[in-house]
Amino acid sequence: MPQKVTEGPLAERIARIGDQFAISGEFLYGEELCNGHINTTYRACYRTEDGAEDRYILQRINDYVFKDPVMVMKNVEKVTRHIRWKTMRRRKNTAGQPLTLYPARGGRNYIDLPEEGGMWRCYNNIEGTHTYDVVENTRQAYQAGFAFGSFQELISDMNPEDLKESIPDFHNTPRRFEALQRSAQADVAGRAANCEAELAMFRAWAPQYCRLTELQAAGQLPTRITHNDTKINNVMLDEDTDEAVCVIDLDTVMPGLSLYDFGDMVRTATCTAEEDEEDLSKVVMQLPFFESLAEGYLDAAHEFLTDGEIEQLAFAGWLITAEIGMRFLTDYLDGDKYFRTDKPEHNLIRARNQLALARSIESNIPRMERYIRRLMKSYKNKR
Ligand code: GN1
Ligand code: MG
């Protein structure tokens, strides 16, 4: 649980940043939320005039990762506005409900505060919800799939050209492999000798990395606006019922392939071990979780996805797990510049974990594909 602070340097800093946004009331306390490997996140609580307590999320955009934070904010604004437009017209709440950005001093939805480390923005805190770092039961897997499927459906009619690539080639697996090769070659942190076995495994898989990008280049997979970071802990579930309420962490919304989004759900919602679990015997994909996840996702998304996309769903789970594994190993070789780490070998541990998970997913692909075909048949029969 995050520690609530009412005074001292951290509380003062949070209050100072909160003071830049369209928030009224008296500052009560702040807390640092340590979720995610990238941004700095605080929650601030204010007492309103009528005695209620309102909470907000204050977040600094990591400008090492996002070279152009303004571009990130423009993408986020377009997506949240489009979702608001759509949900208002439908007059019903959907699990993809948007976050609300609060205006900052000066008329934008963000503010550059060099003395506070960079660019900040403010969101509503989604009350009455919680997140899971690992999935515990099939209901949670279903709800996560449904939430991201609904999110994709809500933005499925946006024009991909309206958003910019805030991180170029973010999910371009062949490029990620090239980057890994370069980092192994440069070996700036002198760590390549510690991970020869892992490097060899990623090299052995190399011929498969280009499958989705080649299908996309050949026009057989549509470019869409996608979320690009669909980890299980980026979906807020109702704290009493575990029903999906809202998808968060929109920083990487940009043109991409829906398959990488589904793949990242498979990576994070079908295994009960954390991303940095060292006991690899625990790092296995559980088929019942996959089935619920796929059902939730397709319940929301089967109508707009193409046959070409449906065919690659199972493979995408394997591909992104290998890709994220390569990114962890690259960062290990580069000396831990990108992902937040808590120990010297943290990125190597994560890379080994993802290798184990990718192997486990690989061995399940035929079963996963069979289940998807069954699901798709059931939708056709219902028509
Ligand atoms: C990062 O910020 P966070 O933890 O949601 C990363 C994702 C990785 C993920 C691995 C912008 O996401 O791409 O899948 O770590 N985000 C960025 O846990 O690189
Ligand atoms: Mg993220």
Quick overview:
The chain has 383 residues and is of the alpha+beta class. The protein has helices at 9-18, 69-90, 138-154, 173-186, 196-204, 211-217, 258-269, 287-301, 307-311, 313-334, 346-382, and strands spanning 26-33, 40-47, 53-60, 111-113, 118-124, 129-130, 224-226, 235-238, 244-247, 254-256. The chain is built from eleven helices and ten strands.
Characterization of this structure:
The protein is of the alpha+beta class and 383 residues long. It is built from 11 helices and 10 strands. It folds into 2 domains: 9-67 and 100-125; 130-382, Aminoglycoside 3'-phosphotransferase, Chain: A, domain 2 (Alpha-Beta Complex), CATH 3.90.1200.10. 44% of the residues lie in helices and 13% in strands. A 5-stranded antiparallel sheet has the order 1-2-3-5-4, with helices on one face. Helix 3 packs parallel to helix 8 and helix 4 (173-186) packs parallel to helix 10 (313-334). The longest helix has 37 residues, at 346-382. It starts with 8 loop residues before the first helix and ends with a helix. 43% of the residues are buried. It binds 2-acetamido-2-deoxy-1-O-phosphono-alpha-D-glucopyranose (GN1) and magnesium ion (MG). Magnesium ion binds at residues 36, 38, 229, 249, 251.
